[in-house]
Amino acid sequence: MRALVTGSAGFVGQHLISYLLQETDLDILGSVYYKLPLPESDSSRLRYEHIDLQDEEAVNALIARWRPDYTFHLAGQSFVPYSWKNPWLTFDQNVHIQLNLFQAMIKSALDGRILVVGSGDEYGAIEPEDLPIDELTPLRPVSPYAVSKIAQEMLGWQYHHSHGIHAVRVRPFNHIGPGQREIFVASSFAKQIAEIEAGLQEPVLRHGNLEARRDFTDVRDMVRAYWLLITHGQPGEVYNAGSGRAVSIQKMLDILLSMSRVPIRTEIDPERMRPSDTPVIVCDPTRLHLTTGWRAEIPLEQTLADILDDWRAKVKK
Prior knowledge:
Helix 1 links the parallel strand 1 and strand 2 (27-32). The protein starts with a strand and ends with a helix. The protein is globular. Helix content is 42%, strand content 16%. The protein has two domains: 2-176 and 217-241, NAD(P)-binding Rossmann-like Domain (Rossmann fold, 3-Layer(aba) Sandwich); 185-214 and 245-282 and 298-316, UDP-galactose 4-epimerase, domain 1 (Alpha-Beta Complex). The model has no long low-confidence stretch (mean pLDDT 95). The chain is an alpha/beta fold and 317 residues long. Strands 3-2-1-4-5-6-11 form a seven-stranded parallel β-sheet, with helices on both faces. The protein has a two-stranded parallel sheet with strand order 7-10. Strands 8-13 form a two-stranded parallel sheet.
């Protein structure tokens, strides 16, 4: 049995590959954007290859040669604030790549399963009566990124309905963990704390909106949900994935600051404020639980401690 992981050099991709190597006997091919270095691999079941997934012929050749039983499609533009600065690049990357994968699967008559990774951001402008958010909640996107993820999802449904592609759709809510880039909130806080502890930054942590409440899940729990969904999810169906708990950015910051080895004060950075921000987002993962038995297991405090220790190690180097 073979798996293809697109975006394999990324934050989620690396955690997913670690999970698959440990928990399955799959042979794994990780696609890596051709401008990025190939990660190292010490497993005979894993190899990485450079590919431009926006190159239709290259994707056709990859699918025809590897013929994956499972395709985890993680590649794309995933940073919401960047989508405001470059909405067309965001839409082009996220939709174009997925279309190439679907078309290649059709051309190769591939009967494998593909996981279409959407986002909890698709729900957008949430009203209090919508909480907790289930899969029937209306989609009211408030960013170009969210619109691009809706388009990906709808293509997943359309290609399943029109061509029989075994596409399972998932809407993951915020997932965090060690290895995440500092452009994301938990990692940004942790990196600043680690640099302040090391004397590389003045003892001031800069932040954006702290009042927003979000559904945070450890990435290691999230990739376990991905595996359960691609193997047990209903093709064409969509599933929320999240902890089912809303935590404020302020609480996350307070937890991290409590772990700091030195006193730190905080101040608002206007550059970190978004043009629009929904006050509360929390998902209802009941459908995922009933289908697969999945629940989030890793406590937030453990996740944040691991993120901070990861940044401490990087700063030390």
